[in-house]
């Protein structure tokens, strides 16, 4: 029986994929597997029983990835599963920045008891006139699952689209419309675009990437959209730029006390992925990742361990070893098994950065003594007997 804990509400269509072998628990400390959306895991004590965390979403800045890796806890995310939901809200954000629909709707609410509202409308509406986005230039920083979808959609709205991503994946490049101009220097995005939208993960390298220097390079009246994470933007610099008229609108999906009531900022309460479709997609992908890891030891879409897949376990026994990516680990594992007279029928060893993972299919079962010996190897972080 496996125990799982949900740190946030997770869509039922995903949870329904857990078989009777899985029990939902209320205590984090009891869980073998955890599902999470935006709740922070940083301050939680990671139990020794915990094998895996699945982030039903893309951003993993709410999870201590290295701390988890050190404890042999594999962290998954669900790449692309909510990208369409975010794309649609980015397009809505651009339109709301271009046209004062919100000001207009607020005016109607204020005037809702006015019997002459029809006549008053025709006088008042000029205050809410705006611009069209067709023909304007959109710059996209980060051409991953979301950036590519925004780019392609914007071309269909008649925008000129410039894209910047020095680490673009082959898949993303294949999916990108040919009409998108590939930009090599991010400075060109800043200087050429009427709308700029950022779709990069929050890391130490991207934090505050939209800073005073970046804003200084931007065109007057630029609209900046941030559906990625608030700390990607130096919001003090952004608020000054709104104040002095350099930036026309800042559209953000991340309310905080600084922006919530600031003039010129359109603040959305983190709704990018809040669609039934995205929530379902993320939950289904996250649960499938956890089940395959718990039952077969396979790793798909991990952000702190390598991908590793040996399919459904059909051998007598399977053992998984999470370990550091250092030399002679495999040699020690195979020697120990040979000494215990255990034949390895299939084996995969993969690494990602400082961490590695080895899956071993065995012709016979292994006893506790051998498992304890494997656990004692310097650099081994976790040993799991997936099938006895
Ligand atoms: N608002 C929401 O509800 C919501 C929903 C999903 C994702 N997000 C945020 O959006 C981010 C992106 O999501 P995604 O699904 O597109 O992720 P993704 O991993 O598919 O794409 C991120 C892209 O950013 C690129 N990149 C990384 N560093 C860069 C840099 N310095 N300059 C330019 N490009 C860089 C990567 O190469 C990659 O192509 C997530 O990390 C998350 O923080 C927010
Ligand atoms: O779960 C959510 O609602 C937000 C998800 C989003 O921020 C992500 O990074 O995928």
From TrEMBL:
<comment type="function">
    <text>Catalyzes the reversible oxidation of 3-phospho-D-glycerate to 3-phosphonooxypyruvate, the first step of the phosphorylated L-serine biosynthesis pathway. Also catalyzes the reversible oxidation of 2-hydroxyglutarate to 2-oxoglutarate.</text>
</comment>
<dbReference type="Pfam" id="PF02826">
    <property type="entry name" value="2-Hacid_dh_C"/>
</dbReference>
<dbReference type="GO" id="GO:0004617">
    <property type="term" value="F:phosphoglycerate dehydrogenase activity"/>
</dbReference>
<protein>
    <recommendedName>
        <fullName>D-3-phosphoglycerate dehydrogenase</fullName>
        <ecNumber>1.1.1.399</ecNumber>
        <ecNumber>1.1.1.95</ecNumber>
    </recommendedName>
</protein>
<keyword id="KW-0560">Oxidoreductase</keyword>
<dbReference type="Pfam" id="PF00389">
    <property type="entry name" value="2-Hacid_dh"/>
</dbReference>
<dbReference type="GO" id="GO:0051287">
    <property type="term" value="F:NAD binding"/>
</dbReference>
<dbReference type="InterPro" id="IPR045865">
    <property type="entry name" value="ACT-like_dom_sf"/>
</dbReference>
<dbReference type="InterPro" id="IPR029752">
    <property type="entry name" value="D-isomer_DH_CS1"/>
</dbReference>
<comment type="similarity">
    <text>Belongs to the D-isomer specific 2-hydroxyacid dehydrogenase family.</text>
</comment>
<dbReference type="InterPro" id="IPR036291">
    <property type="entry name" value="NAD(P)-bd_dom_sf"/>
</dbReference>
<feature type="domain" description="ACT">
    <location>
        <begin position="318"/>
        <end position="388"/>
    </location>
</feature>
<comment type="pathway">
    <text>Amino-acid biosynthesis; L-serine biosynthesis; L-serine from 3-phospho-D-glycerate: step 1/3.</text>
</comment>
<dbReference type="InterPro" id="IPR006140">
    <property type="entry name" value="D-isomer_DH_NAD-bd"/>
</dbReference>
<dbReference type="InterPro" id="IPR006139">
    <property type="entry name" value="D-isomer_2_OHA_DH_cat_dom"/>
</dbReference>
<dbReference type="InterPro" id="IPR002912">
    <property type="entry name" value="ACT_dom"/>
</dbReference>
<keyword id="KW-0520">NAD</keyword>
């Amino acid at each position: 029986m496996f125990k799982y804990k949900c740190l946030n509400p997770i869509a039922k269509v995903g949870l329904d994929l857990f078989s009777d072998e899985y029990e939902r628990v209320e205590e984090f400390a009891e869980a073998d597997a955890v599902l999470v959306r935006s709740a922070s895991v940083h301050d939680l004590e990671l139990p020794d029983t915990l094998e895996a965390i699945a982030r039903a979403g893309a951003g993993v800045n709410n999870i201590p990835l290295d701390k988890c890796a050190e404890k042999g806890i594999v962290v998954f995310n669900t790449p692309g599963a909510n990208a369409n939901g975010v794309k649609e809200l980015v397009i809505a954000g651009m339109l709301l920045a271009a046209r004062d629909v919100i000001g207009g709707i607020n005016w109607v609410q204020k005037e809702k008891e006015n019997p002459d509202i029809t006549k008053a409308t025709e006088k008042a509406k000029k205050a809410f006139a705006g611009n069209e986005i067709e023909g304007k230039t959109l710059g996209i920083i980060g051409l991953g699952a979301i950036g590519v979808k925004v780019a392609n959609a914007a071309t269909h709205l008649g925008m000129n689209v410039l894209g910047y991503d020095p680490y673009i994946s082959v898949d993303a490049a294949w999916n990108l419309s040919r009409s998108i101009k590939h930009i090599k220097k991010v400075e060109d995005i800043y200087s050429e675009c009427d709308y700029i939208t950022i779709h990069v993960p929050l890391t130490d390298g991207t934090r505050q990437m939209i800073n005073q220097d970046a804003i200084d390079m931007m065109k007057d009246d630029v609209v900046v959209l941030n559906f990625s994470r608030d700390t990607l933007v130096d919001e003090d610099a952004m608020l000054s730029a709104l104040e002095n008229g350099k930036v026309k609108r800042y559209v953000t999906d991340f309310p905080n006390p600084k922006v919530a009531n600031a003039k010129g900022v359109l603040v959305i309460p983190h709704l990018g992925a809040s669609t039934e479709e995205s929530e379902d997609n993320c939950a289904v992908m996250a649960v499938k990742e956890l089940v395959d890891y718990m039952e077969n030891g396979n790793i798909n879409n991990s952000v702190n361990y390598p991908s590793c897949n040996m399919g459904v376990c059909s051998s007598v026994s399977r053992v998984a070893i999470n370990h550091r990516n250092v030399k002679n680990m495999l040699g020690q594992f195979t020697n120990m098994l040979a000494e215990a007279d255990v034949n390895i029928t299939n084996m995969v060893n993969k690494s990602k950065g400082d961490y590695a993972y080895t899956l071993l299919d065995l012709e016979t079962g292994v006893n506790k003594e051998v498992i304890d010996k494997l656990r004692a190897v310097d650099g081994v972080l976790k040993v799991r007997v997936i099938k006895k």
